[in-house]
Specification:
361 residues, alpha/beta, Isopropylmalate Dehydrogenase, ten-stranded mixed beta sheet, two-stranded antiparallel ribbon, 14 strands, globular, binds 3-isopropylmalic acid, binds magnesium ion
Length: 361
């Protein structure tokens, strides 16, 4: 197969981790007889600096023309003072919306090799963590109107609107149930229906849609309880279905309990058109340009890109196996370092994974 990928490196550690992601996916695809071409486009703070806006129209166009989009990270303190509509994060939210990427899949897996880096008690970690957060990505308080800061009764007031339509809930619920069928057939829907009307509708629609998935077990948790259960007993979860805001928060939490935010990949997909694949972590400006970042989340996002974005499951397997092998051989970046292991920088870790992919065939 011949496929074209649009690269959005973004800010901070974005360019360095994407370089390693590209090296791994290129090697794996080539090993499996596929040809990949890449083209860069600007987004986030880098685009604000170069073009005065976080998501230039040309970037959206290049993404639409690609078979998949591979993104690093956006944002950093450099752009803290820019006006809200020019913040780098607007670029990321904008491209998700422009490509209709309503379903964000964030797997959190505790690899046995990294059990020692897990923040939980050994007996909790021993029960394992293998869950996927299915986060709705184009609705909720992230996009609801009205929004803004205005004056009310002589003082400033900030307003955002949490809103979900029935159809938005229904399609993401379907995504979660379908995914559960490929896994352990359990969906836990997370909401705040004891307080919020949006969540009451969420729960109603999820229950309605569940009627089409009698073979999948459905449970419900309030988001505060879910946050607690994720640290108390994460092994109970298979698929966590939730909205945009709760999913943002819970996916960072799920990532952190597995050991490092630097390990977790994500895929964002829509009804049709290219998907977007990006690590869950941010731009880490404090370590940018120092070759210290963990490229594994980007490399594993590359594996998701190959599997879900391009339909190249063998190449995806190669990348995932190579990443596991590097960890099994004791290679670590600083964020997951333990005594007795070998500390590597971002590029050297990427290189080890490429070497493992070569060795695997
Ligand atoms: C994420 C990030 C983004 C989000 C930010 C950077 C806009 O935290 O992908 O989880 O809130 O969705
Ligand atoms: Mg987040």
């Amino acid at each position: 197969m011949k496929k074209h990928i649009c690269l959005l490196e973004g800010d901070g550690i974005g360019p360095e981790i994407i370089a390693q992601g590209v090296a791994a996916v290129s090697e794996a695809a080539a090993r499996c007889g596929h040809e990949l071409t890449f083209e860069k486009a600007i987004i986030g703070g880098a685009a604000v600096n170069a073009a005065g806006e976080p998501l230039p129209a040309r970037t959206v166009e290049k993404c639409r023309q690609a078979d998949a989009v591979f993104l690093g990270a956006v944002g950093g303190p450099e752009w803290d003072a820019v006006s809200p509509d020019k913040r780098p994060e607007k670029g990321l939210l904008g491209i998700r919306k422009a490509l209709g990427l309503y379903a964000n899949l964030r797997p959190a897996l505790l690899m046995p090799e990294l059990a020692g880096a897990c923040l939980l008690k050994p007996e909790t970690a021993a029960a394992g963590i293998d869950l996927v957060v299915v986060r709705e990505l184009t609705g909720d308080i992230y996009f609801g109107e009205p929004r803004g800061i205005s004056t009310r009764g002589g003082m400033r007031a900030g307003v955002n609107t949490m809103v979900y339509t029935e159809e938005e809930i229904r399609r993401i619920a379907r995504t979660a149930f379908e995914l559960a069928r490929l896994r352990r057939r359990r969906v836990c829907s997370v909401d705040k229906s004891n307080v919020l009307e949006t969540s009451r509708l969420w729960r109603e629609v999820v229950i309605e849609e569940h009627r089409n998935y009698g073979d999948v077990e459905l449970s419900h948790l309030y988001v505060d309880n879910a946050a607690m259960q994720l640290v108390r007993a994460p092994s109970q979860f298979d698929v966590i279905l939730t909205g945009n805001l709760f999913g943002d928060i819970l996916s960072d939490e799920a990532a952190a309990v597995t050991g490092s935010l630097g390990m977790l990949p994500s895929a964002s997909v829509g009804v049709s058109g290219p998907g977007l694949f990006e690590p869950v972590h941010g731009s880490a400006p404090d370590i940018a340009g120092q070759d210290k970042a963990n490229p594994l989340a980007a490399i594993l996002s590359g594996a998701m890109l190959l599997r879900l974005g391009l339909g190249m499951p063998e190449a995806a397997d190669l990348v995932e196996k190579a990443a596991r092998a590097a960890l099994a051989k004791g290679y670590r970046t600083a964020d997951i370092m333990e005594t007795g292991k070998s500390l590597l920088g971002c590029a050297a870790m990427g290189q080890k994974i490429v070497e493992n992919i070569r060795g695997a065939c």
